[in-house]
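G., before I forget:
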Amino acid sequence: MVFSSLLFLFFFLPLVLIAHTALPPRLRNGFLLLASLVFYAIGDWKNLPLLLALTAFDYGACRWMDALTGKKRRAVMGVSVGVNVLVLVVFKYLKLLVPGLPAYPALPLGISFFIFQSISCLVDVYRGTVQAERNLRDYAAYILLFPQLIAGPIVRYSDVSEALHSRQITPAGLEKGMKTFLAGLAAKVLLANRLGALCAALQAIPNRGGAASWLVLVSCAFQYYYDFFGYSLMAIGMGRMLGFSFPQNFNQPFAATSIQDLWRRWHMTLGTWLRSYIYIPLGGSRHGKARMVLSLLITWTVSGLWHGAGWNFLAWGLFFAVFIILETLFYGRWLEKHRGVAHVYTLILFILSWGLFLYETPAEIFAFAGQLVSPAVGLNTAFLTLNDAFPLALAVLLAVPAVGKKLKEATEKYPRLGNAAYVLLFALSVLSLIRAQYNPFLYFRF
Amino acid sequence: MKDLLLKAPLTRTVLLLMLAGLLLALILPKADFSEMENRVLATVDLRAGQLDRQLENYLADHFPFHDALVQGQSSLAAALGRRLQNGVLIGSGGWLMEEPVREAGSAARSGVRVLNALQDAYPDLPFSVMLVPPSSHGTDHLPALYQAGDTGKALAELRAELRAEWIETGLKDPVDSYYYRTDHHLTAAGTRVCYESLCRAWGLMPRAAEPYSAEGFLGSYWSKAPLLQTQPDVLTADLPSGVTLTVDGEKRDGLLNRDRLQGRNKYAALIDSVYGHAVLENTAAEGSLLIIGDSYANCLAPMLARHFGRIDLVDPRYFAQELPTLLRDAGTQRVLVYYGLNTFSQTRALAMLMP
């Protein structure tokens, strides 16, 4: 069950929201846990026991670490993180590492988000940044919380520990949450889904030339942005309606003026996680340039493979690593002084990077690279682009920071009109879902 | 909670809409078949697995005011510039079309192999083939910037590979009067052109038509792109008197199923729409013809029934008998393979005719 589905919008979400709001506070975490288990089970009941077992294991490890110091504490952290990583490797990367086996375990839904979230809690407890959650029910409610369980944002325990134990549901929180949720739903259904259809249609053009190939990348870039961004907004919105404050996950990435800046704006919770638990522990930038380069390469290897169990994803991660290293060592300062050029440079690289995301084998990637510089014009490139010109234009426009800001200000200045606009977005999203022409779920490989 | 929601008007409104949608979805009566979309609506089978997907499809199909909402969505998308919806091109003048066939794909080549094999198996039986291109071939109504490409290539490829007698349809540009604006079939006028082409090839004298028409026809293309502003077509046919019809062993009352004329898809009234094996008999004529094809044949067969004492219509998708038995029992003297080019390019059902 995905957020952008009729089943979720008309059955699960209203009933859960109403029940959660109506329940006395002491029963809310238990109810949320139950609702989250039902949510997960509808999508992937076969892996629910694995999720529960790992949750119980991690809870036990956190509690145990709390009672230990020194080497024993470190040992428990090492083993528990190791177990989590092993689960991730077995379920997600076994086919990549050991091809040719007769069978492979099915990828549990949301395992990458779930495991990263668990590891963040284990390491934070080890470091003493947070105390272990004492109540198994509350710990499980945090780990399995349905708004962010299968597609993020990656929420640290410290982000929600206070709300877990005493949260307020306020009218302002409900309204802000609902607006955020509806904006995310519209971004996903009205923009991302259409741009995904456009990308697929352009990819299907035989003898596709340069124009169509660049449009493939542009439509893919915006599809993934509005899909991830939309899902994050829905998660954040639902969290707010439930009394939680999840961290922001995107901050106008198309306005970035360097690759480093881009990754401070795109999937921010993943960036924070990688920095906190991989890059800085490896030494970061504090032990000389060589160590910094190595730390970046390892961090981006992890990032690339987190996005998908394929060598193209590794290449994708290293693509960004190379440019981050070059910016840090050579021309980062220059980019800061030449923001116009920097913006164009970043956009071109960002759009090009999606070629590594879309195509999995070296042959496909090189073939696509050749098509990017081909003067040929594929049949019906213009028509297909015109067919979805409206969502494409809207996607580009809304990616401009000033536009989004103006819209938000307008809805706040004219609240009734603003609310009507949000209801309209909901209605249009539902219309689109009923037709259900193209509603892919991108996170099946995460 | 009541106080909370009273002070949260947007949340209150959206939750009410969600709950209203759920309630209506539960209490409103359900249909099994969508007349508008011409398909069976989703059901839920608890044993089948993928319960969430089943429930989602079920909710989408049975959502309150589903048809009106789908029409609204389609019309809104068209207003925002979407001229290709669900595989249907939205052209000028209210024309709906499917995309042209530019290449004979693997399914078509598979059909060619079957037909060549059948010809080899029955060397004394004359085989003829006529493939009807869709309305998007040779029309002026394609949407702006849409390129049809090389629409002759697929037909040329198939003609070169088929050993049967190839008969051109005779349909010439512009094609407005030959096709429906909302459906993939030929009108009676378009079918008449094909009929006359067959007569020339077989040395027959075309006979005068006995025209029939019915208004309010919204066809297959409209069911995929159900725009609110679409003007219905007028169904046209040539229904000769003195011809009887048997469909899958059951005698029918005339060549037209009048019950089906009540619905939107009036073409389905011809030869009772979908069949595995239909038989037209005319005591005033002699000779036996087998037509292997799709629903395009439903408009052609009555015209040819003036010239043949017996016409067997076989749609391989639904034909459950043995072809050799049929050929023997019917005393077939000639075989015509008559398909829409799009169907022929996609179907692998011809292989079912092989022993």
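Chain A has 20 helices and no strands. Residues 171-203 of chain A form the longest helix (33 residues).

More on Monday.
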